[in-house]
Amino acid sequence: MREFSPKVGLLLVAVWIGLIALGRQPHAAAPTTLSPALLYWVILAALAVASGIGFYGVLHYGRRAWRLADTPIARIRSAPQGYIELYGRASLLPGPPILAPLSYLPCAWYRYRVEERSSNGRWWRVDAGDSDNLFALDDGTAQCVIDPEGADFVKTRRDVWYGSASGARTHALWGIGAAYRYTEQRILPGEELHVIGCFRTVGGLRDAPDTKREVADLLERWKRDPQRMALFDRNRNGRIDPEEWEAARRAAHRQVQKEQLQQAADPDVHLLADPADPARPFVIAAFREEGRLIRYFQWRAAGCLLLALLAGGLLLTLSS
User: Fold this and answer.
1) DSSP code, position 55
2) Per-residue pLDDT tens for 238-276?
């Protein structure tokens, strides 16, 4: 999920200011293509959209700040199942290294964008992507596997440079004369993280086993397998007598106990992923402090509120 940005609302306000400037041009100048009535309704529509975006941003960022303040911070080893906050350091899982596609630097996660300058000087995206590799969070008590898909990333390391189509860097001040712009965000191994998402643990026996139910389920599966039931027909009469059924029940009980012991011996694997619930954001911040992350969302909510109030006030003034 890409983070909502108030830049869209600011762009609409800029368009509105430009339209006002266009509408106030002297009559001696070249005639504008917009009639005064049409210009009026275009300005009202732009203000309405900007106000709506601002109020949406207030709810969007305000809900994230409230969720962070309301959700307890847990330690991985003793964390409850469900929606929680964790902090620790990023680490790599066993396997091939993760390399950022533009800088080729080893990392735990990356996001990149390649833009090409058009003939009119604007930048157009020609390539982009995110890492979908799993990485780990280590808080000193245990490790938790992070699935980054769907996360909002906050304050990650970000590099921007200019260059040619091959990716070779050029020394271009503010990109003047450069043909391509490269942007790359990374999370490095050992970097401090603060995350909030859906936590679950697989492996081991999380709850007391229901042996009786598991034995009954296993016997039910065996009854649908004639070859399996034939193993318990000792007198070969084609029927399972009560003594033979009791032997089958004891065999099922032994197998269930063996599987439970094997499951109890398996190590726990902790996972943190997207809750897939709009009311519960999945956030990965590249710093440890919870208060800093809460203030980040509060300031953005305040900016969106200011945008909504300004656009709404101007809308009411012009429409009255």
Assistant:
1) H
2) 788 888 888 888 888 888 877 776 666 556 789 999 998
Asked if the structure places residue 253 within a domain, the reply is: yes
> Is the residue at 37 inside a domain?
yes
Residue 121 main-chain phi, psi, to 5 deg: 90, 0
Same domain for 133 and 236, yes or no, is: no
According to DSSP, the β-strands at 143-146 and 269-273 are: parallel
CA distances from 196 to 1, 72, 131, 153, 293 (A): 14, 10, 19, 11, 11
Considering the domain architecture, whether residues 143 and 245 belong to the same structural domain is answered as: no
Q: Which of 148, 127, 128, 126 is nearest to 137 (CA)?
A: 148
Contact by Cβ (8 Å): 134, 93: yes
Residues whose CB is less than 8 angstroms from the CB of residue 216 and which lie 6 or more positions away in sequence, other chains included: none
Range of the domain at 66: 7-203+268-319
Residues 49-99: pLDDT tens digits? Answer: 888 899 999 998 998 899 888 888 999 988 999 999 999 999 999 888 999
Q: Computed over its alpha carbons, how large is the radius of gyration of the chain?
A: 30
Distance CA 211, CA 192 (A): 43
Please report whether residue 95 resides in a domain: yes
Does residue 1 sit within a domain?
no
CB 264 within 8 A of CB 209: no
Q: Are residues 144 and 276 in the same domain?
A: yes
User: Is the pTM value of this prediction over 0.90?
Assistant: no
User: Most distant CA pair in the chain: distance in Å?
Assistant: 112
Cα(262)–Cα(258) distance, integer angstroms: 6
**In whole angstroms, what separates CA 193 from the centre of its chain?**
14
Judge if 12 and 138 occupy the same domain.
yes
